């Protein structure tokens, strides 16, 4: 009988090379709770709270200016 771990495979995103951080150019809302909204990046499939996405955009613009 195969082990439970062998039944699942890890899928690496194809659009982003492993040495580059995904900038999450396209996201979609996947869940909403009382005061939280969760989005999924359509490129790398990472799921995170939408407020984190806004923070990432602010950090990226600060890095671009320096």
Characterization of the model:
By secondary structure, this protein is α+β, with helices and mostly antiparallel strands. Helices cover 24% and strands 21% of the residues. The protein is built from one helix and three strands, in the order βββα. The protein has one helix at 50-65, and strands at 27-32, 37-41, 47-49. A three-stranded antiparallel beta sheet has the order 1-2-3. A hairpin with a 4-residue loop joins strand 1 (27-32) and strand 2. The radius of gyration is 16 Å and the shape is flat.
**Poorly predicted tracts of residues:** 5-13
Task: Determine the N-to-C terminus distance.
Answer: 56 Å
What oligomeric state best describes the polypeptide chains here?
single chain
Portion in helices: 10-25%
The structural class is alpha+beta
Summarize model confidence as the mean pLDDT. 74
Descriptors for this entry?
alpha+beta; three-stranded antiparallel β-sheet; 3 strands; flat
Task: Itemize the secondary structure elements and their pairings.
Layout: E1 27-32, E2 37-41, E3 47-49, H1 50-65
Outline:
The protein has a domain of 43 residues. Helix content is 24%, strand content 21%. The protein has one helix and three strands.
């Amino acid at each position: 009988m195969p082990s439970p771990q062998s039944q699942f495979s890890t899928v690496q995103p194809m659009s982003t090379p492993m040495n580059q951080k995904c900038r999450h150019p396209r996201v979609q809302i996947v869940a909403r709770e009382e005061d939280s909204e969760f989005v999924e990046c359509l490129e790398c499939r990472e799921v995170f709270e939408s407020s984190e996405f806004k923070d990432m955009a602010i950090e990226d613009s600060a890095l671009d200016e320096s």
